[in-house]
Design goal:
alpha+beta; Translation Initiation Factor Eif1; 5 strands; binds zinc ion
Length: 199
């Protein structure tokens, strides 16, 4: 086992550092500022910093270039209120550094690629329906969309799932024109043709 201690973990006064150390916590992820970069939502952290602690934000941008000891972030002028509590915390339970921040992940919705999928599926021998999924990834109100399709095609159309609309009749080809027309943010390239699907 190596006994070497990384320089930044060495306990004791360091040159050029003012004591007592204070730790500034990020308002976005609740972690000490130097941990922000490991947080999945680092961009938001930066935004928060820029807004609330512009001085630290500038430092961070510089720090990215690599000054090495980016560690203790307490010397900034803006770090005051939260500093004291932090010191106490760290001596009592050294292993915990506001862990909840790291567990927070983005909502699944944001990860889902934006895409609308159209497919046709047989209903009985002659009838088919058109299934539209993915409208919700564009934040479109499914109920309104179903109603719109119903009116447009003069046929039954209803919301059948979390992000699924079933239109009575084969209107798949028309949808490729109608959807971008109705919702300009959905380019035709975002619409996938899944062909005939068995359900
Ligand atoms: Zn942060």
């Amino acid at each position: 086992m190596a006994t070497e201690v990384p320089e930044r973990l060495v306990i004791g006064p360091k040159e050029g550092v003012t004591y007592p150390l204070t730790v500034t916590y990020c308002g976005n992820c609740s972690m000490p500022l130097e941990y922000c970069e490991y947080y999945p939502d680092y961009e938001k952290c930066k935004q928060w910093l820029e807004k609330n602690l512009p001085a630290e934000f500038e430092r961070m941008k510089m720090g990215a270039a690599g000054t090495g000891d980016g560690g203790a972030s307490g010397t900034g002028p803006a770090s005051n209120a939260t500093g004291e509590a932090a010191d106490g915390d760290e001596t009592k339970k050294p292993q915990k550094r506001g862990g909840k921040g790291i567990m927070k992940t983005k909502k699944a919705k944001d990860d889902t690629p934006k895409k609308v999928c159209l497919s046709r599926s047989a209903r009985g021998k002659r009838k088919s329906v058109t299934v539209v999924t993915g409208l919700a990834t564009f934040d479109i109100d499914l109920k309104l969309a179903a109603k719109f399709f119903g009116t447009k095609f003069a046929c039954g159309s209803s919301v059948t799932g979390d992000d699924e609309i079933v239109i009575q009749g084969d209107v798949k080809d028309e949808l490729f024109d109608i959807i971008p027309e109705k919702w300009p943010e959905i380019d035709e390239d975002f619409i996938d043709d899944l062909g005939d699907q068995k359900r």
